[in-house]
Amino acid sequence: MKKGLFITGIGTDVGKTVAAAVIAKALEADYWKPVQCGDLDNSDSIKIERLTGLNTLPETFRLKAPMSPHAAADLEGIELSIDQIELPKSDRPIAVEGAGGVMVPFNSKETYLDLMLKLNLPVVLVTRHYLGSINHTMLSWKVLKEAGLNVVALVICGKVNESTESHFATQMDVPFIRINELEEVSLEAIAAEAERLKSSIKPLLT
Q1: Is residue 70 within 8 Å of residue 106, measured between CB atoms?
Q2: Residues taking part in catalysis
Q3: What's the CATH number for 4-205?
Q4: Number of Cβ within a 10 Å radius of residue 91
């Protein structure tokens, strides 16, 4: 069994944290966000604990500004380095959530792609249908594949778009997993989605 999954998105506000919650719950995994930027009193780790009841692992960096890591770190006079980040030890799989998208800068030279390469976990790419999302999804997919990362699923958050999804099906040799548009993001809703998708998510670790 793999040590975990790295969950990245095609950009911000595509449902990545909800996807991470559903995946973590389906796997009964620990959750870990290496870098939290902004909203430290209601961080993604706190949200995941509330939405899943699962264990979360401490962030390596906690930065005050709601900005990309390199910019938030600059404001605090900190130089982030991927060398400082190591996958935590756990007896359970770890659901790792990135920030923003694949090429979000970590510092002046490194991006989240470099972090994914270092951790070397199977990657789940999260997308949502909107005008421009085909381009953003295909660019993210291309970068991940050309880097040699093992992309194991495309998670589609929200409603069906048959035209877009038929295009993805011609380009991607991975399963599609749909997380329904949740009327309310709650403990009960996450648990229901995790149970519904458990048979699709568990094989991603093997």
Answers
A1: yes
A2: 33
A3: 3.40.50.300
A4: 5
* pLDDT at res. 121: 96
Mean pLDDT, rounded, of the chain? 94
Burial class (CB in 10 A: 0-12, 13-18, 19+), 182: middle
User: What is residue 27's three-state secondary structure?
Assistant: helix
Confidence of residue 2 (pLDDT cuts 50, 70, 90): low
Mind listing the pLDDT tens digit for each residue in 45-99? 999 999 999 999 999 999 999 999 999 999 999 989 999 999 999 999 999 999 9
In the chain, which residue ranges form alpha helices assigned H by DSSP? 16-27, 44-52, 69-75, 112-119, 133-146, 162-171, 187-201
The domains of the chain are located at 4-205
* 112: three-class secondary structure by DSSP: helix
